[in-house]
Write a structure and sequence with these properties.
Blueprint: H1 5-13, E1 21-22, H2 23-32, H3 37-49, E2 53-55, E3 60-63, H4 68-75, E4 91-95, H5 104-116, E5 120-123, E6 126-130, H6 137-147, E7 154-158, H7 163-170, H8 175-196, H9 201-220, H10 233-253
Antiparallel strand pairs: 1-3, 2-3, 4-6, 4-7, 5-6
Helix pairs in contact: 5-6, 8-9, 8-10, 9-10
């Protein structure tokens, strides 16, 4: 799927850990995807008004504060193996029933936050995930709120489910579908990597952007299930292959963004979850 001007800009700017990118580099990047220069400039103005990007006095751009939480979630793919611990069979719960569903924007932000952290609905208004995240519960609560969960939601550890609910909870994730998706994406990356260096540079840039973005969207929403529920070897294999593909993508994009004298994007965060950062605005 081709990116919109807005999602392309957010994904490109997410590569910049330090410094900023000139408009001309963003316009050239847009042209690779058939996006007109005026569309890039209009999208920049709207993103700036929404505080998702900011510019300096030289007219160079970088991500704004409002994009930070979603960007951090997506960019965490490199450290995913450090984000979990052995599971003790307990659960993390989010209780949202008191929040209501009439505010559509708040509801979308809530659902996105919950999905990002791998929660699934056990019952209406009660979302669960295994309590195998390395961070303490209060840190998970803060991360959920930064991603868009209303602070009035109850986030807590849950133990002692009855046998029927315990069985249902363990079956909330389609483990077969997860494994199949890992394998299919790994194969796609390997096929692309085998031929990327032989392609014209612009074609390699577009392909690595699109396929890398699809991969990182998949990793951003991965539930990080414990071994007791879903063996991690296929997920780990996908991350390992993505690390290799990341290096190829950086090579293809070398110099394109003119990042304050830098010549290579920080990593393939340019290819993060096409559209995920766009949703940070909550629309």
């Amino acid at each position: 799927m081709r990116p919109t001007a807005r999602s392309l800009l957010l994904d490109l700017l997410s590569t910049v850990s330090r410094g900023s990118v000139p408009v001309r580099a963003l316009v050239r990047s847009g042209e690779l995807f058939g996006i007109e220069p005026n569309a890039i400039r209009v999208a920049l103005a709207r993103l700036r008004a929404a505080r998702l990007v900011r510019s300096d006095e030289r007219g160079r751009y970088q991500l704004g504060a409002r994009a930070g939480a979603v960007h951090g979630q997506v960019a965490s793919w490199r450290a995913r193996e450090r984000r979990t611990r052995p599971w003790d069979a307990g659960w993390l719960a989010v209780h949202t029933s008191p929040l209501g569903r009439s505010d559509r924007r708040a509801l979308r932000r809530r659902l996105r936050a919950i999905a990002f952290l791998g929660f699934r609905a056990l019952e209406p208004g009660l979302e669960l995930r295994p309590d195998n995240l390395a961070e303490p519960t209060n840190a998970t609560r803060e991360r959920l709120e930064a991603l868009g969960l209303d602070s009035r939601a109850l986030v807590c550890r849950l133990d002692g489910l009855d046998a029927a609910r315990e069985a249902r909870a363990r079956g909330l994730w389609d483990v077969d579908a997860l494994g199949r998706a890992y394998r299919e994406r790994t194969a796609e990356l390997e096929r692309s990597a085998a031929q990327l260096a032989e392609q014209p540079r612009e074609r390699a840039m577009v392909e690595s952007f699109l396929l890398g973005g699809a991969t990182l969207r998949q990793l951003a929403y991965d539930p990080l299930l414990p071994e007791e529920l879903a063996p991690a070897r296929e997920r780990d294999r996908l991350v390992a292959v993505m690390r290799q593909y990341d290096r190829l993508g950086r090579a293809a994009w070398t110099g394109m963004l003119e990042v304050d004298g830098e010549h290579t994007p920080a990593d393939l965060r340019a290819f993060e979850a096409v559209g995920a950062l766009e949703q940070a605005r909550g629309v």
